[in-house]
Structure formats: C-alpha cells, structure tokens
Description:
Residues 1-91 form the HIG1 domain. This is HIG1 domain family member 1A, mitochondrial isoform X2. The mean pLDDT is 80. The chain is mainly α. 0% of the residues are buried. It has one domain (4-87). The protein is built from three helices and no strands. Helix 1 (11-24) packs across helix 2 (26-47) and helix 2 (26-47) packs antiparallel against helix 3.
Amino acid sequence: xxxKSFFVEDDAEQSNxxxxxxxxxxxxxxxxxxxxxxxxxxxxxYRHRGTMSTSVFLMxxxxxxxxxxxxCLTLGLGYQMVKEYIFDKQPKExx
Length: 95
C-alpha cells in the first residue's frame, strides 16, 4: 500500500478536476458564487437587521437560499436540455 494519504491530492490534480467539472456543468460555478454571495450578504444584513429577531431573520435567509438553489437547478436543467436536444443535431442511436 502506498504511503500517500487517500484524501490528499496534488494541487494540479485538484485544479484539473475543478476545470473539468466547470466545463461539464457551468452552473456549478454559479452555484458556488451564489453560496458565497448569500453568505456574505446574510452576514452583512444580520449585523444591520434592526429589531428583527434572529430566528425570523434566519428563516427568511433560509427561504431565500432555497429559492436561489431551486432557481439554479432549474436554469441548469434547462441549459442541459437545450444543449442536448436543440443544439446537438446528431441523431442518437437507439438501443
């Protein structure tokens, strides 16, 4: 067995994996950016929430985050369908 840890990967291998995933699924990067933006905006708004209770604020933030995820999933699914059925005019083989 190798002395190299199973969980440790090279930086080059990690960046190649990220580049490959980004090419296969461009909405993954949009989702990651949305996650970071929602966290930053949520942290800022939490500090300036006024008299709103923490539980109400967190419930509203959760609903906004879930709406963002559903929107990204819908856009990603639509993109994949358009890419596969409209832009790809090659006939598919039937099994």
